[in-house]
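Any chance you could type out a protein's amino acid sequence plus the matching C-alpha cells because I've never seen that pairing?

——
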Amino acid sequence: MNIKERDEKVSLAIEIAIKIGIIALVIYLSYLIAKPFMAIVVWGVIIAVAIDPLVNMLEKRFGNRKKIIIAITVAIIAALILPTYALSGKTYTSSQNIMQMMKEGNITIPPPTEKVKEWPVIGNKAYAFWDDASHNLKKTLAPFSDEIQSAIKSLLSSLGGLIGTVLMFVGSMIIAAMFLIGREGASQFYRDFSCRLMGPKGDEWATLSTLTIRSVVNGVIGVAVIQSFFALIGMALMGVPLAMVWAVGIMFLTIIQVPALLIIGPVIAYVFSQGSGTAEIIFAVYMILVGASDGVLKPILMGRGVDVPMLVILIGAIGGMMLMGMIGLFVGAVIFALSYTLFGFWMNMLHDDDDAQDKMEQK
C-alpha cells in the first residue's frame, strides 16, 4: 500500500466518522427535544390502536368517520375532566375536614370486639390501641400527629400529580384522534417501517403487534379502568374521604394483577364504622361485585390477542410508573408486553429459518 492510498483511506475514515458523529448528534438532539412529549405521543398511538375497531364498527353503522372520532374524543375528555374537577375539590375539602376533626377530637370510632384479642401476634396490642382510640382518638393519635399530617400532605401532592396525569391523558386522546382520522397513512407508514426492519416478516409483525396492544389495553388496562370507575362512583355516593385516591389505588392493583379487595375491604370497613344500615350493606355488596368483576370482564374484553404473562405486565407497569409517572403505569405495561412479544417473534423467526434450511437440505 503506497502513501497515497493510505492517505485516501484515512481521509475516507475521517469523513465517515464525522458524518456518523453528525448523524448521532442530530438523533440525540432530536431525542432530547421529543423526550417531554414521548409518553403522551406513545400513549396516543396505543389508544388509537385500541379503539380503532370501535370506530370502524360505528363507521359501518352510522358513517362519517371524522364526526364519530370527534364525538368519542369529546366524550372521553369530558369523562376525564368533569369527575376529576368535581372530586378533586371534594377530596381536598375532605382531607382538610379530617385534619380539623382530628385536631378537635370529633371523630368517633366504634369500640373493638373481644375477637380482636384472638388475632395472632398483634391481638392484644391491637385491641388496646383500638380501645384507646374509641375513647379518645385525639389523645391516642397525638404521638403520630406529624406523621399523619405528612401523609395527608403527600396525598394532596399525589392529587396534584393525578390532575397533571389527567391533562396528559387529554393530550394523548387528542393525538389518538389525529391518528384515527389519518388511519390509512399511519397504518401504511407502520407497515412500511416494519418491513424495513424485518423484511418479509414485517407485515406479520405489524399485525401481531396490533393484536398485542389491543389485548393488553382491553384485557388489562380496560378492566382496571372500569373497575376503578365503578368503585369511584360507589365511594363518592357514600361520601368516602379521598375517594379519588382509593380509586387510583384500585386501578393500580388491578393492572398489576393484585386483588382490588386489598383496598375495597378497608373501605367497606370504614363505611360500616360510620353506620350499619341498608345503604352500607348495599355498598358492601356493590363493592365486592366491583372487586370480583375482573373475572367476568377480562374474558369479554381480552378477545383474540396474545397471551402475555402477568409477570411481564407487572414489571412493565411498575417500571413504567417509576420512569414516567402515572401515565407510565399504562404505557409501560403495553410497551413491555410488546417487547416480550417482539422477542418471541424474533425467536420464532430463527426457528422458521432453521426449518426452511432443513427442507432445502432434504431436497
Notes: Residues 1-181 form one domain. Residues 3-62 form the longest helix (60 residues). The mean pLDDT is 78.
